[in-house]
Amino acid sequence: MFITQADPRSRISRGEGSFVIHIAFILLFPGFFFYQTLLGLGVIGAFLGGYFTAVALVLTVPLIYTCHIESKKNRGFFSAYDLLCLLYIAYFLIIIIINYSSGANKMIAQRYIQSIIFCIDTYIIFRLINLSSAKFIFFTGASLVVMSIITIYLSIDGFFYLQALGQAKDPDNLATYQGFARSYIYTFFIVTALVTKAGVRLIIYGVAIATLFLNGARSEFSAILFSVPLIEIYYTRHKVTCIFSLIGISLILMTSSQSLATMLPDNRTLQLLDLSHSSSAVARQHLSSDAWRTITENPFLGSFASYADGHYAHNILCAWVDFGLFGFVFFAILLLFPAYKLFSHGFFASVKSTDFVLALALTCITILWAVSAKNVPDMSVGAALGAFAKYRCSTISRNSHH
């Protein structure tokens, strides 16, 4: 009732491949959350292992085929930006294959291959996703509600951690809080992009912030706090008033968070107030310092997999270390170009667009994560670039009809 249909202004958005795209999104995100919940409660065994990688690999071929069919049906489907993204993937693959063949750490190379597959999947999903499907809208909205209820209900002492229940039959395959948060935040952005009533969005924001607070995934929690003001400023006609209101709300939340920190001293999310007390943040600072040392020693080509598995810089510096200066600059351009276009051409437009909201949110959080939290290429990169390509395509299509 509160979710509106997207503007189906391009033939691509109404393609017959929508079913495959919707199934892929549901399986990768809400599906992962529900599978892991059942696993954590001991209802099922890990018959699909950890789930995400296996399902992503199975979906890759159908997704690529769906993209191929769409490109055959629609002339001009591939834009210059699509081709640039394809070159980005090709470059990373070439570097990985060369280093893998030269005896680089096999585990790190394999993890990069997985990451690229995830990026391909998310790129195609968000490039072709049909936001005007009533069934998809209903299922996505219902999934967000159920995921929120599960997180809040199963939290113990202010933290959602299913391993603490001790009921999992295969605890080694049980996801961490980050996996659950990943499923939640992508579903959250789909739903938020489709809601035009400010009051309903505020309710969704409140529930989402509470849910991710209990989840403990600080990157996803920060992403919501970062993206919500941008979405609201985009929608409002009174942008200056909105900015001051958001500042006031932020001050109130910061004041309240001190009381919460006293009540919940072990909550990971509250460590954002003082990262010096976070062992994870301190470790990441050391990893970034190591990355800078490697960059200064090998400024142009980098040094692929020159660290122990898992000891990479949790930010864009890992692109420089593993893929050289060219890979770093290439990646930065791919993200900064959409950000520039979104803020300079769409942010102040009088006609609001669900495609724009999704592209804006995903692009901004991907930049935030690239600077502070995620390795490159994270699957958020594929989602952001795909969402922007879809928005750009729909904008060009709309303009050509005027």
Number of helices: 14
Computed structural class = mainly alpha
Euclidean distance between termini CA atoms = 31 Å
What fraction of the residues are assigned to beta strands by DSSP? under 5%
Proportion of helical residues:
55-70%
What series of H and E elements makes up the topology? Answer: HHHHHHHHHHHHHH
What shape does the CA trace take?
globular
Would you report the number of β strands? 0
The stretches of 5 or more residues where confidence is low (pLDDT under 50) are: 1-15
* Biggest sheet layout: none
Compact summary:
The chain is an all-alpha fold.
Walkthrough of the structure:
It is globular and about 55 Å long. The protein is mainly alpha-helical and 402 residues long. The protein starts with 17 loop residues before the first helix and ends with a helix. The longest helix has 30 residues, at 317-346. Helix 4 packs antiparallel against helix 12. It has one domain (12-71, 80-400). It contains 14 helices and no strands. The protein has helices at residues 18-28, 30-40, 52-73, 80-101, 106-128, 134-153, 177-194, 198-215, 218-235, 239-263, 279-297, 317-346, 354-372, 379-400. The model is unreliable at 1-15 (pLDDT under 50).
Q: What does the secondary structure layout of this molecule look like, with pairings?
A:
Blueprint: H1 18-28, H2 30-40, H3 52-73, H4 80-101, H5 106-128, H6 134-153, H7 177-194, H8 198-215, H9 218-235, H10 239-263, H11 279-297, H12 317-346, H13 354-372, H14 379-400
